[in-house]
Amino acid sequence: MSNLPKHISVASKATELTVLLLMLTILTVLISELPREVFSTESKSFFLAVGVVGSWRYSWWFVQALRSVWYNRRIFPRMRAEADALGEQGKPAELYVLCTSFRIDPPVCYRVYDALIREVAAYGVPSTIFASVSDQTDVDIIGHVLQDHGWPSNIELRYMFQKGDGKRSAMAEVLRAISRRTPAPGALLISMDGDILLEPNTLERSLSFFALRDDLGALTTNNSAIVTGSDATAEWYDLRYAQRHLVMSSMSVSERLLVLTGRYSVFRADLATHPTFIGMVESDHVNHWRFGDFKFLSGDDKSTWYWLLKNGWKMLYIPDVFVTGFEELPDRKRFFASTTDLMRRWYGNMLRTSGRAIALGPRPMGLFTWWSLVDQRLSMWTTLIGPTVAVLVTLFIRPSFIFVYVLWILMTRSISTLILAWQRGRYSLLWIPLIYYNQVYGALLKTWVSFRFNRQKWSRQGISAGEPDSLSAARRQRRMGHLLHGFHVCLMVFVLLLATGVLRAPDRVSLQILDLGGLTPASAPAPEKSS
């Protein structure tokens, strides 16, 4: 349902064939060795726990999938036709571009600015590009790009050097500079990272939607990736973008989103230069009962999203326009450690902001968007119920249950992968194990982060923040986080022990036996009174 750019990174055919043979082997072994007794009456607790929770989770997921199809098949095509019909009338009076780069490889920097300047020059609107750079090399490269394009007359370029204390201060500095220039009514601002490649006609096919809707505050587009790394890394990124496409399309039915991606988003310039908007980008913070008042390090896209959501502005997802990121894991040789770092940062950004968004209530965003935020909080625990029940039942009731669980995983994740592939326009067998990895390991990380979300780290810039300056106070916070996390995990396991029948409360017969044996408190001999 989407036309992916041809240069995206995908797994090789040899890898896909290897995964296919491996999965066929596992499936053959499972089916041939599956014991019949797993379907006995003793299995009811397993099927009840996994079935009920699974039905709840997958019914919600299918609702999102159906809304996504409805948006891509019915709602968006009408909007696309209306936007394209505007022609020159759909263009803004002015265009500003905020592009932040931090130690981007020179070849990537050249390709990014080459595509950006080509797009802006072709669009033909008076435009100012603010290049927020970290060193002189970026300036030299951008100068070469402009020279190669003959210094387009509709483009003014401004360089602003970053302080090195994070992306937020760099963005705020540029937004203040734009504010001082007093943008014309209807002017737009593009906020993008310095490793994002604009595909041809990105501006022509996305900016006119603002002319259709006066209440549209911001939009974002579909994503793809050029990945430096292994086949698993390439498919991990593409799977994440496929999942993002489904959820973004679903949320766009309600004219709200759950995030405005910092990779590439477009805002009305008058909103992006509002003092409170700039203040939130620069110094967003929350006051938490356990962590006190702490400032956000990353997650500027969550801050801009929250400002628009709180003030009632609508947001839109453009599914047929792609921007392509140059992606690379922090350590390309360590998939597990690198994806852990990335997911921990993303989930921290999500958890730091979703609580205050939920506190706004359904009124400014609609019931579906509000419940989706609540579901983000619930799903990190409900996702863990299935694997936990499978382990408990396998260990304490019947080891052969693990065969059923693995079959359940293969079936459900295969169906999910097929639906994602239908929406994405491509398919990889690697998505089946990777989707389970994202769900279960991601849920574990979310629960970990939820008790420690003040701890923030930006691996590329090597800075961290969120904990108290006092070492003893930071240790107290960490110990309390470990204690609360451990308590909630133990509580969940205890409830599941009871629900699966692994742990049973003593019945009347058991109590009578204990009583006859003199083991109950009531039958214990009373202490002798001293004379």
Automatic annotation (TrEMBL):
Record InterPro entries: Nucleotide-diphossugar_trans (IPR029044)
GO biological-process terms attached to the record: extracellular matrix assembly; hyaluronan biosynthetic process
Regions that span the bilayer: 14-34, 46-70, 428-449, 483-503
Main subcellular location: membrane
Entry-linked Pfam families: Glyco_tranf_2_3
GO molecular function: hyaluronan synthase activity
Gene3D superfamilies found in the cross-reference section: Spore Coat Polysaccharide Biosynthesis Protein SpsA, Chain A
Localisation: Cell membrane
CC per GO annotation: plasma membrane
Assigned keywords, A-Z: Cell membrane, Glycosyltransferase, Membrane, Transferase, Transmembrane, Transmembrane helix
Stretches assigned to coiled coil: none
Keyword Membrane in record: yes
PANTHER family (alphabetical): HYALURONAN SYNTHASE, MANNURONAN SYNTHASE
Protein name: Alginate biosynthesis protein Alg8
Organism: Halomonas huangheensis
